[in-house]
Amino acid sequence: MTALRAPFTALALRQVVFCVAGVVSAAVILAVPAILPALGALVVWATGATSDRPVAPLFLVLLPLTLVLLVVLAAPLGRGLSRVHRGLADRLLGVRVDGPPARRSLVSDGPGWRAVAYGLLKVPLAIPEGYGAFCYVFGVVNLSYPVWWPLFRNHPPGTTLGPVHALTPFGTLDTRTFGGTFLIAAAGLGMLLVAPWLMRAGIAMDVAAMRRLLGPRGLAERVRELQVSRARAIDDAAAMMRRLERDLHDGAQIRLATLAMNLGMAAEKLGAEGPPPDLAQARELVALAHRGAKDALADLRDLVRGIHPPVLDNGLGDALATLASSSAIPVEVEVSLPSRPAPAIETIAYFCAAELLANAAKHSRAGRIGLGVSGSGAHLTVTVSDDGAGGADPDGPGLSGLARRIAVVDGRMRVFSPAGGPTLVSIELPTHV
Fold first, then answer.
1. In this model, does residue 130 exceed pLDDT 80?
2. Domain range holding 269?
3. Are 202 and 278 part of one and the same domain?
4. Would you state the pLDDT for residue 224?
5. Same domain for 60 and 142?
6. Do 47 and 184 share a structural domain?
7. Do residues 354 and 393 lie in contact, with contact meaning Cβ atoms separated by under 8 Å?
8. Which of 83-87, 270-274, 388-392 has the lowest mean pLDDT?
9. Which of 29, 64, 93, 185 has minimal Cβ neighbours within 10 Å of its Cβ?
10. Contact, 262 vs 285, CB < 8 A?
11. Least trusted range by pLDDT, from 143-152, 241-250, 324-333
12. Residue 410 zone, left/alpha/beta (φ > 0; ψ -120 to 50; rest)
């Protein structure tokens, strides 16, 4: 069913546009070497050179100047072309490739020359992309032959008509009859079914070359990642401080202020001077103060649990088992950790699992949830799966926020959630920070 559905998805249409743009780009790049002969012919024509009149010296001057100009402009033009390709990949394929650092000098513009190399590599890469786009476009065209034949080939009997041609990857198919159009339509259906896989193969090689040649490399990429992670860590810390301040102000602080007020009123009722004490009102005020003290302690415990759950003191396995026991949907927990990770990683893994379980219970309509934690060497993997309706959006506010938080410690998240389910979310974290 996936193979039959693939050509009719929005992704397939975006892939066609990307592949056609790649073919156009390759054609433009191939046309660049023709600039020099064209300029030479233009100069010869403009100076009126003939067999009797030699080529003007101007041509001998323009030729090396043109070569120098092409060398000087190669890197900037490569950067501009790479910016276009990165934008197409982002908009059409959802693949984001960060741009290289800004140019510092014209001579040592490494990213610019890598962009030139990508432009040259784009020529052979456009062959599988163009082949896939050809199969897709002409597959649709060939499928339409039985539809339009009765409308435009309805001539009187005895009329001799020329053959109708159809393009296929193996040549042309010709037919003079309505029955022959079904053979063309069958070829079109085959072309249409195989086109998405051809385009994906070409696009995969293109994206790999794009990441390798157009993105930041080595130390520059790592510095950018650290800058982004630092900014996210600062934002998360500020958001946590605001949340703690709000929770303290709206919860424990108000309860403690009420407790102090009730105790003060009780002290007045039991004062040593003045009228006889009202024991009944004093007892009532003390009881209210007692309840307020217990509520304030509960608020503080919840606040502390939101910072570092005490159950994590016994290890991540016990903490996740306790978390699963409170889920509205049955959760199967499987923990396999050869060694205990760093406390900060345990806390992050716990809150990731808590948020994913809450999302599954709220949105998935699942009957069963699987929660697994495994460790191998320097990495810890948390997986949450369910048999629900699927359709989880990695770019949604919940999952994208989770991805940003784990990126602070170089964590990565993968989401597999086709429409109709099942859903699998995998989070990979380092065991130590």
1. yes
2. 219-307
3. no
4. 61
5. yes
6. yes
7. no
8. 270-274
9. 64
10. yes
11. 241-250
12. left
Are residues 231 and 206 both part of a single domain?
A: no
Q: Which of 153, 181, 213 is the last residue of a domain?
A: 213
Which residue, of 264, 288, 307, is where some domain finishes?
307
Contact 169/195 with Cβ under 8 angstroms?
no
pLDDT of residue 419: 79
Q: pLDDT by residue (tens digit) across 186-218?
A: 888 888 888 888 888 888 998 888 888 877 665
